[in-house]
Amino acid sequence: MVFLRRLLKNRRWLLPIAFLIIAIVVINVTSKSQQVFKNIEIPFVAALSPIQKVLSDLGISIRDTIDTVPQLFYLKQENEELKQQVSELLQYKQYIIEYQRENQELRNLLGFRERNFQYDLEAAEVIAREPSNWFNVITIDKGERHGIRKDMAVVTDKGLVGYIMSTTAETSKVMLITDERSSVSAMIQRTRDNGIVKGTIDPAPSGYLKMVYLPYDANLVKGDEVISSGLGGLIPKGIVIGEVEETNKESYELMQYAIIKPSVDFLKLERVFVIKGEREA
Amino acid sequence: MRSLCYILVSIVLFLIQTTILNINWIFGIKPDLPLVFALCVAISNGERAGAAVGVLNGFLEDVFFGRFIGLSAIAKSATAYLVGVGSKNLYKGRAIITMALAFIGTIIYNLIFVVVAYLTGELVNPWFQFFAIAIPSALQNMIISPLIYHGVAKIERFIDFYFDIKY
Known about the structure:
The structure holds two protein chains of two kinds.
Chain A: H1 2-9, H2 14-32, H3 34-78, H4 83-115, E1 119-129, E2 137-140, E3 153-155, E4 160-167, E5 172-176, E6 183-188, E7 194-198, E8 209-215, E9 225-228, E10 240-249, E11 255-262, E12 271-278
Antiparallel strand pairs in A: 1-2, 1-12, 2-5, 3-4, 3-12, 4-5, 6-7, 6-9, 7-8, 8-11, 9-10, 10-11
Helix pairs in contact in A: 2-3, 3-4
Chain B: H1 2-18, H2 33-45, H3 47-65, H4 71-86, H5 95-119, H6 130-164
Helix pairs in contact in B: 1-3, 2-3, 2-4, 2-5, 2-6, 3-4, 4-5, 5-6
């Protein structure tokens, strides 16, 4: 009682404490009821995702421009007298590089779609990325209206990207496989040993994955390819996840784990495919 | 008017952070513009204003990328509140002070974030990479903080000139 009386007298701390209590209630309510969270999420995402899409495209153009700066400097040094011409040509070149890169990427994606004709794929663009450094979540520009649902697998031509966390009508959140909260049933392609691929958790370095629950006697070597096993029913079987970088015994010596280098470059993720299901033969 | 201005700037910084800033990854870590903005508002306008901006920034982050609302909102607002309280008796405006507060603030933010994420089951073992994330992030935030503080000072002058001071 004395404590409460003192607290009420010292109004400076009342506001933070009230805020903390409200925050705990909000966490509790929104984590237990996805519907409440969705009701709050939808209007914000609907209002801001078109702007995110435009800014995301702008970001890609800026990155490409920055990539061409060293080249520009080199050419300027070598061809002083042709400066004007070179800068003009570079401008064209920049466009061409961009189109070539885009063309190659689209060809790869098209090739991937043709190679994976058994899946019903939906192409999507990455429009935003989680701002914090702790989680790995991206937003894509396709949602429920395009037939995308929670837990669908997201891939590129290089391999598995992650799975759908939640959806709105026009966008979806994708949890990347590097996120600490992610786990995917997987197997070593050569030895057929099964395990679970988790995100970046101890002792996997940043950007790498940890494959756990591997049999103690599994004969793994560096470079072994890791694919999804299809167990659990979320991710279809046979999608490339990455390759073994190193293996170690667990401290209790009953299992071993492997550090996996993902096959997808998550820092340069621009376009992805969502696997909506399998096509009927 | 002041509130509206800060809400707009917060939304713009959030959009930049989640889209354009993806190009600026150093060691896989990126600076946190909304957090630095909340810290600068806390230094400049006091702990309550900083905490309010922190709540808004964290709320947007939770809505767009979280699985529930509250994780980033708590971490960002509590950090801004603490930095606001801690900077009360300091001489404001000097870049070195702002940079030091941004550095310390980012470490506190990561600490609160990790504790709340751990308590809510979002992170299971975050400590092994705590310093690998917190230190580069604090350094990057420290570098950009004088620029953002300058921006906050400009916003304040703008609002004072056009809206608050009556002649």
